[in-house]
Design brief:
47% helix, alpha/beta, 18 helices, 393 residues, Rossmann fold, seven-stranded mixed beta sheet
């Protein structure tokens, strides 16, 4: 590729209008700078930066391009997702730009350096890709594959008022659970209804610590990922961001689980009203494609003291107490995870021992497991797992 062709390619890239956001990436900025630079020292420096930026994509330019194109939020993909009319001009520009990306996927290091006077030129991988067909597939399955940031991961969190992917999300599977089948069925059936566009309830999972409430929600999100479900986890102190999150996902063809772990409030907590509004379906705090799943160790999420009941200054004391204690009733479904009895606890221990290939006589294993639970102060699936881990170490 001579300098004239490099300049032409740079001009085509700089003219991008639909996928213009991709030009802001470090990879494309370095690549275009390499194409347009005249000074050899600066030129090779830009090329080094370009290859360096491909490290997270296994040094593959085509991998970078695929990720950039399929996760880009642009006018075309938003129109498709929201079932709006796409103009002829927008469609033509989109197709032309996808063809440019297809051409980029054919480029090799040798193409970019027709005359090499350097002893070392870094290599990069590239695989010929038809981005027109790839994008058509994305559009066809947009309700399951998603677009933008939600096409990049299964689970997300909120940081500085922005939704970001969780890179090391919990990959827990439903197959890893033992016991609590009825509880899990309620949650999975409700999520299935969400996927099918049927009425789905907000759920409160409450009960003893270590019984698998949070793990059940994450396993559910993993199970329904291929059906277009994404999980967004927020902390209790981030509930004021609910309206932002709902606005972010409204109109998105994907389905969302807004997950709040270990939920509890003090009576004067400002976050109370925001969650209450979301559960009651306030227009500013609710999205039709989302449900709220929350876990708590207590049935009544609001911490109430006897002093609340002796408040003589409150004329409507009964109304106040009812308001404080009834938030959990605003969830459409409440699921109780109780502490396992001895039989269930040992069932979990035996199953985990078998799964980890631990060869200990059942009576001896049961005795050790009971002793371990006694030292921990309770029986729970978490304690059973900790016990098995202690045998492996």
């Amino acid at each position: 590729m001579n300098e004239e062709l490099k300049q032409k390619l740079a001009c085509e890239l700089l003219a991008l209008s639909v996928f213009r956001n991709i030009l802001n990436t470090e990879t494309m900025q370095s690549f275009i700078s390499f194409l347009t630079e005249k000074d050899n020292i600066k030129k090779i420096n830009f090329f080094g930066e370009f290859v360096y930026s491909l490290a997270e994509f296994n040094y593959s330019f085509s991998n970078f391009l695929s990720n950039a194109v399929l996760t880009d939020e642009n006018k075309y993909i938003l129109s498709i997702a929201q079932k709006k009319e796409v103009s002829k001009t927008l469609l033509e520009n989109t197709t032309k730009e996808l063809k440019i990306f297809s051409e980029l996927s054919k480029i090799t290091t040798d193409d970019l350096f027709d005359k090499v006077d350097f002893k070392y030129i870094p290599e990069f991988e590239n695989t010929k890709t038809d981005f027109v067909k790839l994008y058509e597939k994305q559009i066809k399955n947009i309700s399951k594959l998603g677009y933008g940031i939600f096409a990049t991961a299964k689970m997300f969190k909120v940081l500085d008022e922005k939704v970001i992917p969780i890179k090391s999300a919990d990959e827990i599977s439903v197959d890893s659970f033992i016991g609590y089948k009825d509880q899990r069925k309620q949650i999975f059936d409700n999520t299935k209804a969400l996927c099918e566009g049927k009425p789905a309830a907000n759920i409160l999972l409450y009960g003893d610590a270590g019984t698998g409430k949070s793990s059940t929600v994450k396993a559910c999100a993993n199970y329904f990922y291929n059906e277009g479900v994404r999980l967004i986890e927020i902390r209790k102190d981030q509930l004021l961001s609910l309206s932002y999150i709902m606005g972010k996902i409204t109109g998105n063809p994907l389905k969302f689980i807004i997950f709040i772990d270990d939920l509890s409030f003090n009576k004067n907590d400002d976050n109370f009203s925001m969650l209450k509004a979301a559960l009651e379906g306030s227009a500013s705090a609710k999205a039709n494609n989302a449900v709220i799943y929350a876990t708590s160790n207590r049935r009544h999420i609001i911490k109430e003291s006897f002093a609340d009941r002796r408040n003589e200054d409150d004329i409507h004391i009964n109304d106040t107490i009812q308001e404080l204690t009834s938030l959990s009733d605003r969830f459409g479904l409440t699921v109780y995870f109780e502490k396992p009895n001895k039989n269930l606890y040992l069932e979990i221990v035996f199953a985990l021992a078998k799964r980890n290939n631990i060869k200990i006589d059942k009576e001896e294993l049961a005795l050790k497991a009971e002793t371990f639970a006694l030292n921990r102060g309770n029986r729970s699936p978490r304690v059973a797992e900790q016990f098995i881990n202690s045998l492996i170490l």
